[in-house]
């Protein structure tokens, strides 16, 4: 027999490889284009994917009707490809018009109506090309099968080629085209591929295009005999089995994608790797199915379904150990892969075996359908349509109903039952048989499924979610039964899996295993970055009527906003399970839930989609807090299109506040974000209140930290509640955290390529960075080193009596950051400072360089209120109490605050030395005095009575506790005296811990003189601070001061006696620098540990 009658012409295979690749590019690119309208939620993605699959199924079904009637199906296929390519180019213009069309609808659409609207728009745009795409394969099957009795084998080969093309397309678009060419470039490339596939068929010789002559007579007789020996076709059973296979395949893909998204993260590269591995399995399975066709196709399909049921059970066990496999593959103490090969291999371990078995199912249904070459297009199109519609149903139901309602484990059990049920159908009706045998074939697979479900391994979801938090233990011990012992909440939502873990007195909220937020035991319970994110709009917006919060998280940002006088706060959250988790967090912490406030309005939807519906100038503030921009879709909240939409929705005096997570990012990408925001807004500033975050604030009008902002700051309830516990006690210390003003922002981002929806290279760049990397303050200082810290215009906008305090607060803030100090020093000539102000700042510069004596000389010489206060504070921190009191008696200038002097006077029991100061204080109205100053005025006359009437709070100094302790002893209240003494010791230790932490930062920043000053300070307040002594001794030795190092370690050794762990630190430090302390052999090894050392070390 001639080969042309038994194998498809090569040209068809080549064309289908090319068009298969193009189809996957279209699917990815069009899906991302529609994210601007539909958002990035799983529902939005499923809407687009559902329309895509519906079009494919419709095209296959229609081609089943018309392909057999077409005289030249090969030419029809070519025309379809040309039409697809032309529409692809046209779609570039249609997609640009779609946001405007969507925005024209009513902004208060309900969630259900919004979903229907998006589905309708997706149908409008995607149904024409997807219908054409779905029709291509049946027409090629019709062309290739003419003259052949084995159309199922021909169709299988063509389907394999098309799937191989899909593999190439998925890899091309996922790993190269999107970040390099962008969406538009990828569409153009795919359109060229579609046209190329058409031209290949149009210009191929007639014989290669499927117009082969009929087979010879011998071949005809052979095929006729073969056909007579074959079982009759069962097209209806084939449709049922094809639909079931589609349901199982896509439902399984959804489930395993949810599992893998937890393990290898939800980056675009990860999703591309999953799709590539799934399609490789489908391609291999369909190729191998040509061998199975020679056997009974129904029995083969039934056995495949049984194998799939067992494979799912085995895959559950495999999935439980994937985090361990990833850590071992990487050879690093991390379970978050950023290497493409690790992502591919990890996803392949789970998906490839399952996809290989699934890939053989559809070709077998073609053989079950039977029929001759004249039925090829009809049966191929119908079974392909049934398979596609089944996949649509399976993916939609699994993602939006089954997983949220039943959970992943029960869904996997359901898939096992579905596969065994499909096996029962194929066994029972695939061949003619007796009723008894059919009953056995129906019952046996189902009984086998029940037995398997009783003994199958269970998915350890708590382990998969939280293994990366303790890598060593997870690798060594693997999933254990008690893996979820600290998990107090776990909910599988429509988009993500949300959990809460209890750690000590704190609770942490995780989203797909990634830390999202939490509540700590220490007030206010969350970080200063969230406080600043919400405080900036409250300070800078023209009016405070309506605000929008993008992303609820744990609700902290919303809580801070609601503490200010906003009339309405809209909160848009993607995942409903996050809202439930946030409510549980606040209940656990015994705090009111912010969404219970009548001014808060929750919307469960995608933020960009909702923002697009908002009328122009409808908000006074927009707060955006995307926490993981390297994840697929999250980077959409950093593009110029998003910023333009935010600008449109803001009123003229409105403010956009944006959080940039400094984890897993570099300075280059930060510059791009800043430049993108600055292209949309004329005024942008940057703040950094902790090491992990950069806060950008943007507005249409100048953002001035002026008198109005200070007034708001001083009269906001949330300032004392949220900022004071984080060390921001006044307006000056808040302003000091500003890193870039308008001018610096413009210079920092100048020349950078902006981020856009069309080219998502931002998330690709971040996903390639290891999860152990983060951007430090020193890294940013290096990037900002040529930029002034503040210009004259912003300096003059500050309240006049705050200007010098802002500069001093900035100086104190950047002690461990030499390049930031240099930036500030270079900025001073630009500010037009008065000579007296410059003299006072010179003292502050000297202090922050660790030059204590020089700083005191400069302060005393300046003789201003600010300088007097700084000198008193420095002498207090250095323990030079008597010197400070003597200077205060001679000084003619009153300080800004008398608190340092009062502390020292109480410490030395010499309050009468402050009589002049107290006389000056008494002349001030009580409203202008601090509670501590008022108490100092009353104490000389009333003594302990004043102390007993005073309620000691968290911020009161240890010296006041000392006086209170003495008063308690005088009253013979020994228990109270003992408690006050213990609290005083704790507060002194807290001061020492903070000084030690600052010293470490200075040492890391190469400000060694300041580090020495701060380590000395830590030992002043806690003489047993062994870690401070060890570091200070090493610095002394490096400077040739061995005698001082020896004396220091001896003092600390004596102060630490009785605590084995502190003594061990001191002895190790001495041995490291070649010193031997006396009496080391006499120290008992079983001494108790120092009670505060654990905290001391963790804080250090």
Can you describe this structure in just a few lines?
This protein has 1100 residues and is α/β, with parallel strands linked by helices.
Low-confidence spans = 1-7, 212-230, 1081-1100
Main sheet summary? 8 strands, mixed
- Termini separation comes to 83 Å
Q: What would you call the shape? A: elongated
Relative strand content: 5-15%
Structural class: alpha/beta
Beta strand count = 12
Percent of residues in helices: 55-70%
Number of helices, where a helix is a run of at least 4 consecutive DSSP H or I residues: 47
**Rg, Å, rounded:** 36 Å
Oligomer: single chain
Describe this structure in words.
Helix 1 (10-38) runs parallel beside helix 3 (73-103) and helix 9 (297-320) packs parallel to helix 15 (435-455). This protein is elongated. It is α/β, with parallel strands linked by helices and 1100 residues long. 55% of the residues are buried. The strands form 2 sheets. It has an 8-stranded mixed sheet, with helices on both faces. It has 47 helices and 12 strands. It is 65% helix and 7% strand. Mean pLDDT is 87; it is low at 1-7, 212-230 and 1081-1100.
Please outline the helices and strands:
Blueprint (H helix, E strand, L loop, with lengths): L9 H29 L3 H25 L6 H31 L7 H34 L6 H52 L14 H13 L5 H30 L3 H25 L4 H24 L1 H9 L9 H20 L1 H9 L6 H31 L1 H22 L5 H21 L5 H6 L4 H7 L9 E6 L4 E7 L2 E6 L2 E6 L8 H13 L5 E5 L5 H8 L4 E6 L2 H13 L11 E5 L2 H7 L5 E6 L15 H10 E12 L5 H14 L2 E8 L2 E7 L7 H8 L2 H7 L7 H5 L2 E3 L1 H8 L11 H7 L9 H8 L7 H6 L5 H11 L4 H14 L3 H14 L3 H11 L2 H13 L3 H10 L8 H9 L7 H8 L8 H12 L1 H6 L8 H13 L3 H31 L3 H14 L4 H13 L3 H14 L4 H13 L20 H7 L1
Parallel strand pairs: 5-6, 5-8, 6-7, 8-9
Antiparallel strand pairs: 1-2, 2-3, 3-4, 9-11, 10-11, 10-12
């Amino acid at each position: 027999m001639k080969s042309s009658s038994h194998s498809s012409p090569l040209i068809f295979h080549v064309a289908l490889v090319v068009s298969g690749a193009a189809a996957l590019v279209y699917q990815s690119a069009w899906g991302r284009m529609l994210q601007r309208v539909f958002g990035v939620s799983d529902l939005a993605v499923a809407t687009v994917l559902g329309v895509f699959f519906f079009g494919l199924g419709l095209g296959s079904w229609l081609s089943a009707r018309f392909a057999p009637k077409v005289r030249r199906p090969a030419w029809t296929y070519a025309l379809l490809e040309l039409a697809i390519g032309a529409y692809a180019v046209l779609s570039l213009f249609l997609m640009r018009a779609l946001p405007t069309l969507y925005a024209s609808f009513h902004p208060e659409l309900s969630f259900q109506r919004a979903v229907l609207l998006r589905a309708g728009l997706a149908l409008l745009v995607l149904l024409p090309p997807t219908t054409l795409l779905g029709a291509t394969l049946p027409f090629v099957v019709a062309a290739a099968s003419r003259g052949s009795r084995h159309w199922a084998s021909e169709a299988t080969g063509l389907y394999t080629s098309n799937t191989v093309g899909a593999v190439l397309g998925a890899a091309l678009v996922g790993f190269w085209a999107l970040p390099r060419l962008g969406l538009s470039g990828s569409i153009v490339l795919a359109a060229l591929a579609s046209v190329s596939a058409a031209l290949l068929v149009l210009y191929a010789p007639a014989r290669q295009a499927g117009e082969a002559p009929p087979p010879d007579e011998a071949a005809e007789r052979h095929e006729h005999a073969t056909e007579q020996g074959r079982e009759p076709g069962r097209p209806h059973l084939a449709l049922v089995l094809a639909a079931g296979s589609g349901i199982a395949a896509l439902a399984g893909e959804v489930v395993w994608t949810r599992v893998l998204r937890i393990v290898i993260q939800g980056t675009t590269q990860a999703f591309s790797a999953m799709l590539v591995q799934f399609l490789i399995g489908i391609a291999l399975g369909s190729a191998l199915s040509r061998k199975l066709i020679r056997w009974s196709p129904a029995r083969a399909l039934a056995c495949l379904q049984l194998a799939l049921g067992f494979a799912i059970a085995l895959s559950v066990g495999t999935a439980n150990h994937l985090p361990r496999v990833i850590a071992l593959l990487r050879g690093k103490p991390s379970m978050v892969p950023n290497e493409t090969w690790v992502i591919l291999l990890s996803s392949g371990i789970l998906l490839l075996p399952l996809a290989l078995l699934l890939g053989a199912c559809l070709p077998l249904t073609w053989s079950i359908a039977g029929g001759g070459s004249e039925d090829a297009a009809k049966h191929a199109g119908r079974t392909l349509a049934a398979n596609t519609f089944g996949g649509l149903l399976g993916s939609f139901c699994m993602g939006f109903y089954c997983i949220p309602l039943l959970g992943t484990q029960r869904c996997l059990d359901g898939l096992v039952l579905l596969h065994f049920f499909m096996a029962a159908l194929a066994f029972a009706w695939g061949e003619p048989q007796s009723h008894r045998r059919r009953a056995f074939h129906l019952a046996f697979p189902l009984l086998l499924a029940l037995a398997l479900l009783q003994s199958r391994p269970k998915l350890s979801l708590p382990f998969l979610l939280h293994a990366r938090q303790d890598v060593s233990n997870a690798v060594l011990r693997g999933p254990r039964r008690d893996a979820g012992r600290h998990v107090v909440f776990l909910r599988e939502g429509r988009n993500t899996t949300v959990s809460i873990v209890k750690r000590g007195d704190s609770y942490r909220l995780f989203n797909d295993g990634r830390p999202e937020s939490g509540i700590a035991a220490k007030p206010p319970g969350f970080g200063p970055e969230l406080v600043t994110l919400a405080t900036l709009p409250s300070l800078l917006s023209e009016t405070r009527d309506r605000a929008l919060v993008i992303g609820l998280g744990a609700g902290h940002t919303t809580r801070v906003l609601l503490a200010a006088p906003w009339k309405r706060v809209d909160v848009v959250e993607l995942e409903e399970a996050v809202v439930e988790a946030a409510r549980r967090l606040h209940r656990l912490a015994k705090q009111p839930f912010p969404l219970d406030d009548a001014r808060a309005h929750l919307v469960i939807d995608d933020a960009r989609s909702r923002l697009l519906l908002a009328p122009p100038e409808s908000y006074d503030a927009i707060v955006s807090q995307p926490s993981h921009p390297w994840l697929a879709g999250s980077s959409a909240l950093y593009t110029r299109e998003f910023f333009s939409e935010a600008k449109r929705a803001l009123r003229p005096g409105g403010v956009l506040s944006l959080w940039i997570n400094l984890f897993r990012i570099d300075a280059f990408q930060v510059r791009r974000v800043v430049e993108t925001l600055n292209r949309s807004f004329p005024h942008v500033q940057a703040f950094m209140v902790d090491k992990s975050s950069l806060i950008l604030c943007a507005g249409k009008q100048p953002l001035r930290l002026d008198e109005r902002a200070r007034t708001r700051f001083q009269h906001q309830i949330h300032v004392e509640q949220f900022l004071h516990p984080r060390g921001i006690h006044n307006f000056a210390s808040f302003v000091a955290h500003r890193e870039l003003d308008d001018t610096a922002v413009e210079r920092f981002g100048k020349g950078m390529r902006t981020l856009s929806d069309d080219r998502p290279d931002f998330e690709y760049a971040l996903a390639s960075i290891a999860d152990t990397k983060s951007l430090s303050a020193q890294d940013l200082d290096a990037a900002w080193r040529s930029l002034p810290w503040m210009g004259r215009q912003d300096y003059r906008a500050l309240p006049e009596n705050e200007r010098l305090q802002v500069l001093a607060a900035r100086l104190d803030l950047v002690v461990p950051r030499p390049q930031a100090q240099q930036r500030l020093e270079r900025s001073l000539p630009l500010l037009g400072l008065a000579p007296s102000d410059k003299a006072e700042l010179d003292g502050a510069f000297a202090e922050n360089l660790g030059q204590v004596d020089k700083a005191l000389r400069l302060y005393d010489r300046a003789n201003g209120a600010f300088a007097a206060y700084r000198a008193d504070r420095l002498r207090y921190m250095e323990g030079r109490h008597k010197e400070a009191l003597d200077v205060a008696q001679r000084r003619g200038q009153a300080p800004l605050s008398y608190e340092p002097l009062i502390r020292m006077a109480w410490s030395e029991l010499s309050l009468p030395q402050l009589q002049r100061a107290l006389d000056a204080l008494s002349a001030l109205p009580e409203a202008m005095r601090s509670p501590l100053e008022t108490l100092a005025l009353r104490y000389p006359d009333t003594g302990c009575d004043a102390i007993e009437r005073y309620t000691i709070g968290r911020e009161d100094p240890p010296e006041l506790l000392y006086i209170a302790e003495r008063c308690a002893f005088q009253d013979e209240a020994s228990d109270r005296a003992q408690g006050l003494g213990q609290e005083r010791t704790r507060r002194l230790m807290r001061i020492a811990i903070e000084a030690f932490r600052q010293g470490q930062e200075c040492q890391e920043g190469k400000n060694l003189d300041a580090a020495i000053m701060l380590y000395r300070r830590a030992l002043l307040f806690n003489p047993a601070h062994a870690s401070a002594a060890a570091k200070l001794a090493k610095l002394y030795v490096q400077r040739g001061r061995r005698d001082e190092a020896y004396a220091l370690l001896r003092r600390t050794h004596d102060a630490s006696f009785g605590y084995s762990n502190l003594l061990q630190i001191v002895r190790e430090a001495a041995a490291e620098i070649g010193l031997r302390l006396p009496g080391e052999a006499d120290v008992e090894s079983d001494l108790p540990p120092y009670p505060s050392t654990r905290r001391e070390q963790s804080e250090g």
